[in-house]
């Protein structure tokens, strides 16, 4: 690991603590302007999530809307609560071919995007210690009166995420402050994802709130609109 990654992992709870867990369970609300633009307003409000911390598998349940969704990189499906398969798609990333920022999504498009995004957010920075990740520390960044150290991370092809190259910004305390990427499945739209409201969950520091904005060519945040909001109401880690 690079020195910056070592410090970030330690600040978020350390590898020994993280390695003792296998699953994250959470209740959360996801909102923001993107969902109305994509034709899926309120799909992810009041959801429950169960995410594997060792492989890309996320289960999402909406009790109020009566559906359960499952994400893996190669297969996504949405079932009704009575167990019937309502919708299913193999090789889901191929279904975004030709999409722009304005292209509307069906429910499976939205599920794939949300599944890989939540899995990425729940596992950073520990995710970067997985085999195949390549890291480079970039010059420091000044924002909000702080100096943030930056880590450019190249994702391996086997991991589904926003884009292969992403940048994580860490404060002087080692905690993630901001996470930048472009979104391949939205025609390369930019995302500056701000992490805040940290809670200690079984020894792991977790940002309970995230706010995502676009950024310009100089990587300055574009204040309006708020693209995505994520608010965890509850989160827990399990050893099994």
Provide an overview of this structure:
- The protein has four helices and 14 strands.
- With 240 residues, the protein is of the alpha+beta class.
- It has one domain: Clam (outer membrane lipoprotein receptor (LolB), chain A).
- Strands 1, 2, 3, 4, 5, 6, 7, 8, 9, 10, 11, 12, 13 and 14 form a 14-stranded antiparallel β-sheet that branches.
- A hairpin with a 4-residue loop joins strand 5 and strand 6.
- The longest helix is centred in the middle third of the chain and has 17 residues.
- It is globular.
- It starts with a helix and ends with a strand.
Task: Give a brief rundown of this model.
This protein has 240 residues and is of the alpha+beta class. It has helices at residues 3-11, 15-19, 33-37, 107-123, and strands spanning 23-31, 47-52, 58-62, 67-72, 75-80, 85-90, 134-143, 146-154, 165-170, 176-183, 189-201, 204-215, 221-222, 228-238.
């Amino acid at each position: 690991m690079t020195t910056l990654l070592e410090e970030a992992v330690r600040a978020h709870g350390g590898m020994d603590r993280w390695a003792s867990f296998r699953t994250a369970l959470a209740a959360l609300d996801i909102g923001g302007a993107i969902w109305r633009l994509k034709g899926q307003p309120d799909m992810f409000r009041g959801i429950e999530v169960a995410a594997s911390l060792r492989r890309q598998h996320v289960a999402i349940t909406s009790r109020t809307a009566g559906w359960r969704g499952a994400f893996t990189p190669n297969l996504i499906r949405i079932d009704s609560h009575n167990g019937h398969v309502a919708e299913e798609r193999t090789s889901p990333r191929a279904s975004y071919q030709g999409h722009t920022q304005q292209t509307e999504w069906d429910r499976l498009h939205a599920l794939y995007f949300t599944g890989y995004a939540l899995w990425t957010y729940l596992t950073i920075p520990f995710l970067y210690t997985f085999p195949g990740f390549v890291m480079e520390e970039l010059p420091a960044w000044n924002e909000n009166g702080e100096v943030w150290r930056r880590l450019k991370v190249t994702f391996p092809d086997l991991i589904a995420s926003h884009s292969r190259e992403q940048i994580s910004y860490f404060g002087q305390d080692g905690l993630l402050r901001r996470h930048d990427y472009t979104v391949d499945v939205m025609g390369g739209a930019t995302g500056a994802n701000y992490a805040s409201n940290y809670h200690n969950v079984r020894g792991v520091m977790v940002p309970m709130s995230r706010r995502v904005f676009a950024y310009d060519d100089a990587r300055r945040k574009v204040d309006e609109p708020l693209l995505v909001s994520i608010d965890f109401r509850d989160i827990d880690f399990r050893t099994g």
